[in-house]
Amino acid sequence: MVHSSPSADAEAVSELLYNEAVRVEETHNGWARVVALADGYAGWVTAESLVDDLARGSAGTPLRCHALASFGYEQADLKGPSTWVSFGTAIEVVGEARVRAPGTGEDVQLLRDAHGLWFPAVHFGPLRDLPDFVPLARQFVGTPYLWGGRTSHGLDCSALVQLALNQCGRDCPRDTSEQVEAVGRAVPDAQLGDLLPGDLVFWPGHVAIHVADGHAVHADGGGMVVQIEPIEMIARNRKHAVADMRVRRPI
Predict the structure, then answer these.
(1) What is the DSSP string of 154-196?
(2) Which InterPro entries does its entry note (predicted)?
(3) Residues pairing with 45 in the sheet
C-alpha cells in the first residue's frame, strides 16, 4: 500500500500494481516517498518493496492483465512459488513457453516477463482502445471495498474508475477531486434522463459509473463492496440529492 507518511500506522491512500513505474523522491528509515509515473500520485512505500528496474526498456512486448487476477511463477511449471497480480498490471514480455497444466495434461502458453516471472498468456493482452469501459468496471461487482485499494483484492470508488479507463488506454487521475475536474467533458445540469452508459456521476468524495436506466456501478464504502444500485439510492445513502450530482462524459 501507499501511505500518507513513512509509517505502517499512517493512512493507506493508494496502492501500486506489480511492475508499476515510480520515481523515488526521498527515503527515510526504510521508507521511500515515490511518485507514480502514470498518474503523478505521491506517497510513501516500504523501500524493500522497490526494485531497480534495469529490465525496463528491454524491447519486450507490452501486455496488460485483462483477468481480474493472475499469477507470475518463478518457474515455467505452474507449480512453484508465485506472485499475485491484479487486473490492469502491465508486463513486458521477453519470452514464451508451452507447458503441460498440472492435473489436466493440456498445453498452456506462458509468457516470461522482463523480471523473469512466467504468466499464463490467456490472462494478458494488448492495451485496447475500447469505446465502452462499463463492462470492464462491471467485472469488479462483488469485489470488497477497500479505502486506498486499487486491485481486485479490494478497491475504492475512484480506483474503480481509474482502472477501467486505463484499461481502455485512457488517462485518469487517481482521486475523485481530480477526476471531477479532468476526465472527459462536463455535462452541465444533467438529469437522470440525460445520462448515457459510462457517464461518471460525482458527489463530494464519491464517484459512480452510470450503467443504464439510472443505475450505476460503484465501489460502495457503506456496503463495503462493488455493486450496482439506483443512482437515487446512491445519492440518498450519502445524504445528497440526485440534483446535486456532477456529471462528466469520459468517452
Answers:
(1) EE-HHHHHHHHHHHTT----SSHHHHHHHSSEE-TT--GGG--
(2) NLP_P60_dom (IPR000064), Papain-like_cys_pep_sf (IPR038765), PG_Endopeptidase_C40 (IPR051794), SH3_16 (IPR041382)
(3) 32
Q: What is the 3-state secondary structure (H, E, C) of the chain?
A: CEECCCCCCCCEEECCCCCCCEEEEEEECCEEEEEECCCCCEEEEEHHHCCCCCCCCCCCEEEEECCCEEEEECCCCCCCCEEEEECCCEEEEEEEEEEECCCCCCEEEEEEECCCCEEEHHHEECCCCCCCCHHHHHCCCCCEECCCCEECCEECHHHHHHHHHHHCCCCCCCCHHHHHHHCCEECCCCCHHHCCCCCEEEECCEEEEEEECCEEEEEECCCCEEEEEEHHHHHHHCCCCHHHCEEEECC
pLDDT, mean of residues 63-70: 96
Domain ranges of the chain: 2-49, 61-125, 134-249
pLDDT tens-digit profile of 126-144?
Answer: 987 777 899 999 999 999 9
Round the CA-based radius of gyration of the chain to a whole number and report it: 19
In whole angstroms, how far apart are CA 123 and each of 53, 120, 193? 23, 6, 37
pTM of whole model > 0.70?
Answer: yes
pLDDT digits (tens, 9 = 90+) for 17-26: 999 999 999 9
Amino acid, res. 33: R
Kindly report the length of the chain: 251
Give 2's pLDDT tier (boundaries 50, 70, 90): very high
Give the domain 134-249 fold: endopeptidase fold (from Nostoc punctiforme) (3.90.1720)
Taking the C-alpha atoms of residue 56 and residue 94, their distance in angstroms, rounded to an integer, is 11
pLDDT for the residue numbered 59: 63
